[in-house]
Amino acid sequence: MKTRIRPRLGTLLRTLPRILPAALVLLAGCAEPAVRAGPDAQEISPRADYAAAAEKLAAFIEHEMADKELPALSVVLVDDQEIVWARGFGWADPVDSVPATAATIYRVGSVSKLFTDLAVMQLVERGELDLDVPVSRYLPEFRPRGYDEAPTLRQLTSHRSGLVREPPVGHYFDDTSPSLAATVRSLDETSRVYEPETETKYSNAGIAVVGYVLEETRGESFAEYLERTVLQPLGMDHSSFEPRPDIVAGLARARMWSYDGRTFEAPTFELGMAPAGSMYAPVTDLGRFLKALFAGGQGERGRVVSERTLNDMLTPQFAPLGADTGYGIGFSIGKLDGHRYAGHGGAIYGFATQLGFLPELDLGAAAVTTMDVANTVTDRVTDYALRLMLAARAGEPLPDAVTTGPV
User: Which residues 6+ apart lie within 8 Å of 174 measured at CB?
Assistant: First the structure.
């Protein structure tokens, strides 16, 4: 990564007002214990029992950023009901020398799907939606070709509907930012790829349909409904499914790369399939989400779903009894070093995200970076974070990071 003198000087100047008072206190011999910052701070210092783990993880992140020339990366670690470390690395805005912090806002891509599915499951709990009836009950005009009857919400949320991956309108490359209604209507031009429940076929289009069910049955825009019923109860005040002015003001600048070495600023248009990938969030808000998962669905300001519903979402769907891998309702389910693992990744123009957690152990982590399709890095950061946390909690030697070398 090229050295930039201006940002480093800017960081020094911004840091001096904090460094000098601390130095004077130490010289006076009356230093007080450090106080960990609150959940909306620019940085949350590591809890004492995770300090060594945070140091190793920071070194790994800095290596990966230098090796892959990533502009910015933010990370959060959660142990049960506490964010035990959150920090940003690099530059949220390299042009204006704005450092990345724990409060930097990112586009988190397909991690959005988890929140859309939570909103659906709230209504399933209340008996207002049924997971196992054709969605044509809620969307009578939804008629993609090849189906004897429309797929169900359960099939759509677990990627077993057989629907195409991208809708003809509002897809990943459609920069016209069409409405959710127009996006879902365009699916009538498509044909079924698989018989429902026979194959796992990841589908952004399917989650667009799920979000449109919410919009149509609630009589409220999808973004407003999600903010009111999911994000606000979780305490995710700095997150949104639409680019509000305060969101845009804190959003990191993201970069696209090409095979010939050129990079350019990422486009910022909204996807027509917003429920599948258009959420904005800082890692501290993703930490609040993890805390709610560990609390059985209880957010900072109210319950989002019941613990029973959450357990259903974390169970592989259309799988043999006892299966421990596959898709639950929204969540990808697997294993990490023998422990049950759940989470989701996200990729949208210039941003790569991974959120992962160990449900039985109440340990979780999330990482976001500002380089297109850098998901191998955020995956590795999150996995290494969980391994470090496991070792720290058990009082075992912390594992070393595995880094790549030239071929």
Answer: 271, 272
Q: Check if the beta carbon of residue 294 is closer than 8 Å to that of residue 310.
A: no
Q: What is the CA radius of gyration of the chain?
A: 22
pLDDT tens for residues 372-403?
Answer: 999 999 999 999 999 999 999 999 999 999 98
In sequence order, which residues have a C-beta less than 8 Å from that of residue 11 and are 6 or more positions away?
99
Nearest of 324, 306, 302, 303 to residue 315 by alpha carbon: 324
Q: Which helix (H) or strand (E) holds 6?
A: helix 5-27
- Cβ atoms < 10 Å from Cβ of 57: 26
- Contact between 88 and 43 under an 8 Å Cβ cutoff? The reply is yes
Residue among 181, 191, 124 nearest 161 (CA):
191
Nearest residue to 235 via CA among 289, 283, 189, 279: 289
Q: 175: closest CA among 110, 265, 278, 269?
A: 269
